Amino acid sequence: MKSRLKVAMIGTGYFSQFHTNAWSRCSEVDVVGVADLDLDRASKVANELNGRAYDDVAVMLQAEQPDIVDIITPPATHLPIIRMAAERGIDVICQKPFCGNLTMAKEAVSVVQTAGIELTVHENFRFQPWYHAMKGQVQANRLGSIYRVTFKLRPGDGQGPQAYLHRQPYFQKMERFLIHETAIHFIDVFRYLLGDVNSVWADLAKFNPVISGEDNCVVVMTFDGNVRGVLDGNRLSDHAAENPRRTMGEMSIEGELGELRLDGNGNVRFRSHGSADWQIVPFEWDDIGFGGDCVYRFTRHVVDHYVSDTPLQNSAQDYLANLKIEEAIYASAQHGRVEKL
To answer: How many Cβ atoms sit within 10 Å of the Cβ of residue 270?
Structure first.
């Protein structure tokens, strides 16, 4: 355990703003360095956090000797940076998509195991407060035996030639897009709610011709107890919400005693079997930053692990299960068959 943590951030793209905010709110953390190929951008973030700016990761790691590096760069860069950190005995937090593919991710896990350091994947959707609330209802057996979990992914940002360009333009060039970049979040959420996946069947399609990868999916996952998880994804359609990116869609969990529903505004409701009345499930959350402040909630979880020795979710070793499911989904769509895991 440590009373204070020295953190170095690598990457200052669009999503780094949420990392910056989260680290700044953790009183036990000193962000000592920020690295980016664009030194001006690195300097702006470093100034916010009272750290130093670098345009060379190796130089920063040598100069600052942080306890943790927070990797917020594209997937192709993950493994080389993880190697650099491992050589210096520095723990790592790495954004998803983790290392770009399963083979590289397995190599990263091997590297950190040999070095004896911790590698945590920054998968923050399971830390969105509505999923914690739904998990609590499941654990309290309010639904009884669960039959099916369905998520309709409808962010509504994928139409036309300008799709994704204003926020994350590299989305247009990704050969594997909807599953690899976006649906991986919900694969992890389904595992968080239901446990390990036993098999998958998938149908993938591309509706917007300007992008390289798929932007539509229907994925059926099976879990223990004959439970089904259905991921129905379409990035071109939206859903009824004040902010379509808050939940990015709507979820239903159906069981013998009733149904839980998540709407696009982050509300969770329960309806008893045989009843037409919906009851609000109360829980506290802050409408800050991204997804119910889930980046801070994840970051706080990691900091608590280091300063209070609490259990850590999202280890890279555990996260490999998500990537195996991803590979099975693409294989199922390619071959038109159920893939066992």
So the answer is: 20
Q: Tell me the residue length of the chain.
A: 341
Domain boundary among 122, 145, 160: 122
Answer for the pair 227, 147: CB distance below 8 angstroms, yes or no: yes
Same domain for 272 and 141: yes
Give residue 32's pLDDT band: very low, low, confident or very high (50, 70, 90). very high
Determine the 3-state secondary structure of 237 from DSSP.
coil
179 is a domain residue: yes
171 has pLDDT over 80: yes
Domain that holds residue 141: 126-291+322-340
pLDDT of residue 167: 86
| Residue 296 resides in a domain | no
Residue 97: which region, alpha, beta or left (left: phi > 0; alpha: psi -120 to 50)?
beta
In a shared domain, residues 109 and 228: no
Measure the CA–CA gap between 103 and 107, rounded to whole angstroms. 6
Q: What does residue 211 show for φ and ψ, rounded to 5 degrees?
A: -100, 165
Q: Which residues pair with 185 in a beta bridge?
A: none
d(CA 324, CA 134): 25
Q: What is the 3-state secondary structure (H, E, C) of 180-212?
A: HHHHHHHHHHHHHHHCCEEEEEEEEECCCCCCC
Please tell me whether residues 178 and 103 are part of one structural domain: no
The reply to whether 175 and 248 lie within a common domain is yes
134 with 126: CB under 8 angstroms? Answer: no
Question: At a CB cut-off of 8 Å and minimum separation 6, what does 128 contact?
Answer: 247, 291, 292, 294, 297
Tokens of 281: 């499930």
Dihedral angle, C-alpha 232, 234, 237, 239, nearest 10 °: 40
Beta strands 5-10 and 68-71 are: parallel
Instruction: Please give the model's pTM, rounded to 2 decimal places.
Output: 0.95
**In a domain? residue 299:** no
- Other Cβ atoms closer than 10 A to 156: 16
